[in-house]
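LAB NOTEBOOK - FOLDING QUEUE
OPERATOR: T.R.
BATCH SIZE: 2
PURPOSE: Compare the predicted structure-token outputs for two unrelated chains run back to back under identical settings.
PRIORITY: normal
REVIEWER: second-year student, initials M.K.

ITEM 1
FIELD SEQUENCE / FIELD STRUCTURE:
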Amino acid sequence: MSNKRKKTEAQNIATAAGISESSALHGEAISEFFKAYTGLDKEAGISLERGHRNISSYKINPEHAINNLRQQAGYSAEVTHVARENAKNILSGNPERLFRTEDVPGFGNNHTVYDHVKKIDGKLVENSGSQMKFVSNIEKQLKRIAEGKGGGKNDHSRYLDGELILPSDQVDKAKEICSKKADLLHKQADALAKKGNNCLAIEKRQAAKAYEDLKDNKIKSAALSSEEAIKYRISPKWETAKDIGRIAHQSGLKGTQLGIALIGGIAILTNIIQVSLGNKKASQALRDVALTTGKSAASGYAIGFGGAAISGAMRQSASAPIRSLANTSLPTLIVSTGIQLSGSIRSLIAGEISNLEFFEQVGQSGTNLLAGSAFAAAGQIAIPIPVIGAMAGSMVGYVLSSIFYQEAIISFKEKKLSAERYTEIRALSSEARKRMELEAELIKNFFKKEVERKKKESDELFKTLDSAISQRDINSFCDYINRFCHKLGYDLEVQDRADLDKLLSNNETLKI
């Protein structure tokens, strides 16, 4: 593998490790759409009452096709609203999660008042119930809710107890209707009161207040329109894919930002040094920085986009071990390796590399994937700073795995190796990998012990310094400072008060 390809792969692995946390978050949001489609929550181990897949299989009576389709689209709207609201809350850090009442024990199927309720950490949020209405005649529906028995044979005034969720395209119209109806009913009530018909006037005012309450407090917008609900009923796979793509796109933009900041920053620094040394002209350096930054942005987007999508799918896998890996850097590293392999495949088809060279590159990319992932985890433990620890660990893992792999592959390329020698080299290669894993553990433990030791020394220092300050013991204060600096590998020029007096009394310029 050329130095240029090695450099690109190392950069991609570092980007993958850095974006893994954000990608996992977007993957969690994406998993909501997998649940909505399949009707299964693999993480919780439960089956939902409805999912887009089974809703799309509902039969439609040709004689009542339009009404059937709208009714079933209402179910699709309920499921989609849950997925979109939960995805939004996950990305914003809101702990609330929305559920259809059919999926919450105690509410039963087709609850008479609520379609949705909210939970936080598994506990029901009080007064969080809502009713969703996706109907063609919204004015008639509002009349049934606000005017109760006066709204016709179907009294829906019970819906006033919670929020009323309407299609996003009907919200403004519904509020306008409520405002006009409230004004009209208030005028009718005033006229009735003048005629002495106080009972009917009170009913009119109550209905007017109900319309006002709907307008000001109850009516909320669903996370989709009437048209989108129909599309989800007809083409659930495509609409789900669009939602997944939208969230993955956000993750891709995060990857672009990281790629530009990380790889672009390194490129700028490197080229500044090259220009200062006279090895490059400024114009050439600018072109190189632009090219590197552009490539890092593209690969960062691909890693962020693909990593989030894979993470979301892994969360809803039937395999528990695969679900447990969704929060690691593995999804983004899989995409990173895929990007690298695509280059190898193109080179093979173009005749730029031989079959042997192709398998070498494929093998090394796989090795670097494993090592980068393992060391990213170790690096995050050793250096508990978000992103930095994972990137540092992945770079170390990449370098070490490359060294071991290259040594093994050089031995394999000898054409006249005997069968015994071949077996020996395989054993050496296996031992090298085991040694690499051992070294990773040692590095992790070393960093952990060092951090603990430095923390302990720092705590002891500040404790003794507080004591020296409170007792106004200047010599002890200086002694403790000198000891701590010595442990860090430094010796101060001023060791005590006598050294300070000497330094201040001479005629030389004081440099700090």
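ITEM 2
FIELD SEQUENCE / FIELD STRUCTURE:
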Amino acid sequence: MLAGPNGDHAFTCVIGAVNSPAAFIITNKCKIPEIALRWIDYFYSEEGIKLYLLGIEGQTYEMGDDGIPFFVDDIMKNPDGLSFQQAYGRYCPQAGGSNPTILTEKYYVSGEGLPKSREASNNLKNDMISFDDVWEKFVYSSTEAEVMSSLEVDISNYYNEQRALFVSGDLDVTDNATWEAYCAEYENLGLEDYLTMYDIGYKRFANN
């Protein structure tokens, strides 16, 4: 963990328990929505979570003597040179994330659940912020989401471009005029409107 100039350090990249709201949507084109709902509801059951995250026992994974599942060599050391995500994704829709299911420690042994990932995260436990301080993703109306999306694209692109210039030294972060010009551009990109939308989402979250 990198430490600041005063020795302070904290791991803040922590997501809420509900990582992917609206991961499954039924449109008005669905002729039998009750069947679609039963199908997706299955992936929140113990059996469905296991199938969604692990695939088929004996084909994609095996159960270890310690009761912890592990992926077979075809997934972890694919003979065709496929990466883990590529081999895993042939059987499990979980590859890539944002899924309508529950990631449980018992069955989530891919991505962040892999041994190396768990070891790395365990090393950060003492630096992690309290989960009580983590917000869930805010929910917006379709109109609000459209405004947010439009503003976020411009703001994010500008932030990423300028950050690269500051890191490379093409822009001097210690120069007051440069820094003030950098900050002022956010106002031109609609930062105030973006924060207003964000505040609407926060108040809706806080009141629920």
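REVIEWER COMMENT (ITEM 2): The beta strands are 61-63, 69-71.
FOLLOW-UP: none requested
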